[in-house]
Sequence to fold (408 residues):
Amino acid sequence: MALIVQKYGGTSVADLERVRNVAQRVIETKNQGNDVVVVVSAMAGETDKLLTLAHEATSMPDERELDVLLATGEQASSALLAIVLQSMGSPVKSFLGHQIKIGTDSAYGKARITSVDADTIFSELREGRIVVVAGFQGEDEAGNITTLGRGGSDTTAVAIAAALKADLCEIYTDVDGVFTANPAICERAHKINRISYDEMLEMASLGAKVLQTRSVEFAKKFGVPIHVRSSFHAGKGTIVCEEESAMEEVVVSGVTYDVNQARIEIAQVPDRPGIAARFFDAISTANILVDMIIQTTSLEEGFANMAFTISKADFPQALAVAQSLAKELEAREVIAEDEVAKISMIGVGMRGHSGVASKMFGVLAKEGINIKMISTSEIKISCIIDAKYTELAVRALHNAFELDKRNG
Ligand code: ASP
Ligand code: MG
Fold:
């Protein structure tokens, strides 16, 4: 007998028929002798609908009230699943985040889980009940309802699995698992059987939409194995787990893209100590997260060029900061573009293999795609390119690195 946490995403609970499907699967898992805790997302489209409503009401809805509103999506789906399970004869109780309770900080809209009270869940399980928990939400110290950021139900599930020391956390979704590239734009994309936490972390933060990045951080920290799989059939999906020696043999595990990127360059800033500090201090004071930074200096002229990337949402604000600073520092000009994408190749095998970067640049060059910025870490290489070449770049890299033949 095992303790299993299952999470079902929005498309898996999109209507009553699908909720019945989910209930069936939950009952099967329970009948195999397992204790089952189920975490659900809001029904597909529900969170977007609530967000739109709030933004129709006012351009800047209050963050606290917005979280109260958004949390209702998961309140509805969790109660509905419990009702369906009961109608099928299963003892079950649903709980909202604050009832469990899932403690968070007070960063509305992107709250971090700080504690999970396992007692309530354990006592329900001891009574033989299935426990359904509303994903995506928690409660801060002052008792306010908070939400965990888009895709946050994944993190609820992993955090609960960690707190309960569950044997497995299954993430049920509308795709078959984690792929070497997004199958929607790359038809030769190949399902990965096993992937390490570190690779999954990079993939999630570099654009793969299948798991919320924070859920992978949590899983890694507490050693929770995740099985990402389809809720529409019984086939095995992808196991996200501790790195295994065979994983090092695969040089590149996947290629991801993120079109939610913008790039700003300040050309010809006077090259003096403290300029970068001044600039990025102003950016961080504005609460903007900077991703890549490149500074080049030309000694002869005494100027530096500074370029950085941010998410599209922060573009207008970052541009305003850049323009005002450029003026003050008498830089030559600010060059800004928001039609850029970040293409990344990820693989723990890169640690032991050289030549991945040069091959990647060669493939892009052959397609006539200009690289605007490059950044690397031990297990990934990212390039900023024109957004219009995104699909071409993903397919060309996927082909050149033969990711469709990836083993494991
Ligand atoms: N319903 C929330 C969202 O759409 C949380 C989730 O689905 O995980 O982002
Ligand atoms: Mg999701």
Q: What stands out?
A: Residues 9-10, 41-42, 47, 73, 135-136, 150-154 surround aspartic acid (ligand 1) (CB under 6 Å). The first helix runs from residue 16 to 31.
